[in-house]
Amino acid sequence: MLLSLMLTVLFTAHLVVFAVLYLRQRQGRYLLLSLTFALLVGSVWARHWAGDMPSIDAQRLIWTLRGMAWVLGVIGLVWALIARRRKLRGSSVRK
Predict the structure, then answer these.
(1) What's the rounded mean pLDDT across residues 66-77?
(2) Which residues have a Cβ under 8 Å from the Cβ of 7 and sit 6 or more positions away?
(3) From residue 25, how far is each of 8, 19, 30, 74, 84 by CA, in Å?
(4) pTM given for the model
(5) How many folded domains does the chain comprise?
(6) Domain coverage including residue 70
(7) Residue of 95, 87, 75 lying closest to 33 (CA atoms)
(8) Which parts of 1-95 are beta strand (E)?
């Protein structure tokens, strides 16, 4: 229970920060991070509450949300690496 609360607070704080950054700067990486943390908040919520709902396969829902968050996380890392590589190549060409 305490771990779920701590993770929810942590993921929600990150979600809010990256959502505000996206709204201010309109950069896709912040939208991607916001979606990732939204899925993680949903995963923690599902783990805590969906077990009480008999019509929901809680484990499948939790792992689907986590899996989608992992996929978005990997996409974000690859995106950041590509952007960094482009930036490094651009700075070496200018010299």
Answers:
(1) 93
(2) 40, 44
(3) 25, 10, 9, 22, 18
(4) 0.79
(5) 1
(6) 2-94
(7) 75
(8) none
